[in-house]
Amino acid sequence: MSADAVGTSGTGGATPPRRERPTLATRRGPEHARIMGVGAWRPTRVVTNAEVCEHIDSTDEWIRQRTGIESRGWADAETSVIDMSVHAGAEALAAAGVDASSIGAVIVATVSHPYQTPAAATQVADRLGATPAAAWDISAGCAAFCHALAQAADLVRGGTAEHVLVVGVDKLSDFTDLTDRSTAFLFADGAGAVVVGPSDTPAIAPTVWGSDGSMWDVIKTRTSWLEHRGVTDPAAVEWPALQQEGQKVFRWAVFAMAPLALRAIEAAGLTPDDLDAFIPHQANMRIIDKLASQVGLPDHVAIARDIRTTGNTSAASVPLAMHRMLAEGQAASGGYALLVGFGAGLSYAAQVVVLP
Fold first, then answer.
1. 71 CB-side CA count, 13 A
2. Can 146 be counted among the known catalytic residues?
3. Among 20, 24, 248, 283, which has the highest number of CB atoms less than 10 A from its own CB?
């Protein structure tokens, strides 16, 4: 082969000019996002402390003193996580004045959908009429709603979706050991949902979040699904009920979440005095009150205490508490609310929002 032939590649001896590399197209959304509407679903069955104490050695007085819980709601066996999500989602859409066909994504925050796959969100989207919206579940325990809200706000601001439906839902009665004295009185069922869409002004502040995987076993299911593989006798393996080390969770929640809350307030460009409402995960009344004290919330800030009659509903607790505060006039539309979620993982997230 002659030197003249090198690099010609059949072009008559000349290397063709390289085509100018195009720039990838991008989407640009609105500068800001907001919560446009909120919805909720609560069980009709009210379970009192007295009923819980039929299975454990405890009393109504002890449960109230330790947790602030007087009663909780349990769904019936036929009601699924998907059913609960659809009811809450439909109410949120109606409150926002947004048709399901305008939803670009559905995010369901849950740890109690009994199928590893597919995600509950796909069926929620279909039943609400939001198909072909993108749909997925996230698992971040009791912090998951605040994580999902952060995702939704970024999707809207990035132009990926005009509107996003976020559902926090858990049916923890399916994963509660009624004979476990440390958890039987805590967990409950419920669903809360919000619609996130464009805003002319800042209405969802930057999210402050993180995790501490060194404490992963403080809140967990007792067993792995792998331990059930090949087992034909259900009595041979414990059901993967939830368990937690209460004292460790209490100390972590109080002393680690107060600095997180203050960082979220600072990220919003506010001070505690600027807040109108505090809506933390409804884990324990003593944790809620201690957090409010540690953050230095002034007396005018309304504090969500939905746990008293709702129990710990995990990912549903923040939107359920928000819904109740607005419905009962404890907080007003347009007010600044600090949301704080924390739980299994251990995971946590917080942000300040303008209430719808």
1. 11
2. no
3. 283
Q: Which two tokens stand for residue 262?
A: 């203050």
Looking up tokens 């907080």 gives 331
Residue 249 to residues 110, 132, 243, Cα–Cα distance (Å): 20, 40, 11
Q: Is 312 a catalytic residue?
A: yes
Q: Closest Cα to residue 240, out of 114, 92, 339?
A: 114
Catalytic option among 113, 284, 312, 323:
312
Can you read off the two tokens belonging to residue 123?
């069926």
- Give all domains of the chain, ordered by start, each with its CATH number: 32-199 (3.40.47.10), 208-354 (3.40.47.10)
Per residue of the chain (356 residues), what is the pLDDT tens digit?
A: 555 555 545 555 677 777 888 988 888 889 999 999 999 999 999 999 999 999 999 999 999 999 999 999 999 999 999 999 999 999 999 999 999 999 999 999 999 999 889 999 999 999 999 999 999 999 999 999 999 999 999 999 999 999 999 999 999 999 888 998 888 899 999 999 999 999 999 999 999 999 877 766 777 676 777 777 777 776 666 677 776 766 776 677 777 889 999 999 999 999 999 999 999 999 999 999 999 999 999 999 999 999 999 999 999 999 999 999 999 999 999 999 999 999 887 889 999 999 99
Q: Give the number of residues written for the chain.
A: 356
For residues 336 and 339, what is the distance between their CA atoms, to the nearest angstrom? 10
Cα-based distances in Å from 282 to 68, 111, 291, 310: 10, 16, 12, 9
Q: Is 53 a catalytic residue?
A: no
Identified catalytic residue from 163, 281, 284, 323? 281
Whole-number Cα distances in Å, 324 to 177, 307, 320, 328, 329: 28, 11, 6, 6, 8
Closest CA to 80 of 46, 127, 34, 18: 127
Q: By the 8 A CB rule, do 300 and 335 touch?
A: no
d(CA 156, CA 165): 11
Catalytic residue chosen out of the listed positions 87, 113, 142, 284? 142
Q: How far is CA 165 from CA 79, 137, 294, in A?
A: 21, 12, 33
pTM: 0.90
